Amino acid sequence: MSELPSDLPRLHALATWLERQLSAVREAIDEAEERAGPRWWVQWMRTAAGEPRRGVLHRAGCWCPGAPDLHLADARRVVAEHGSRIETCLVCRADVRPTAPRSGGEP
């Protein structure tokens, strides 16, 4: 990377610009993933009658049985609806949480 400015105001301005660029890239990635088609699925577990549903979230390429039928927005909706009752697969580590931009210049 080229030499950084030494004064605090320009460093803050640069950090703000980089955060905005990173946010734009993440949005573009989300949009590209949506266009790519379904890439996630939930493997629903058997539960006793009356018990809340539990499941494991997988992503395309995972060796566990199932076929992708959820787009990113749908997978996020399922995770939001079921909360901690949806686990992340230990093999493929499917993660659909949006990445929140950091503020204050902290790593």
Description:
There is one protein chain. The protein is elongated. Mean pLDDT is 85; it is low at 100-107. Helix 2 links the parallel strand 2 (55-59) and strand 3 (86-88). The protein has 2 helices and 3 strands; from the N terminus they run αββαβ. The chain has 2 domains: 7-36; 37-97, no CATH class. It has a 3-stranded mixed β-sheet with strand order 1-2-3, covered by helices on one side. The two termini are 17 Å apart. It is an alpha+beta fold and 107 residues long.
Strand fraction equals: 5-15%
| Morphology call | elongated
Count of DSSP E strands?
3
SSE sequence, one letter per element = HEEHE
Largest sheet: number of strands, sense, barrel closure: 3 strands, mixed
Rg, nearest Å: 19 Å
The secondary-structure class comes to: alpha+beta
Distance between the termini: 17 Å
**What's the domain count?**
2
Which strand order does the major sheet show? 1-2-3
Total number of helices: 2
What fraction, in percent, of the residue positions are helical? 25-40%
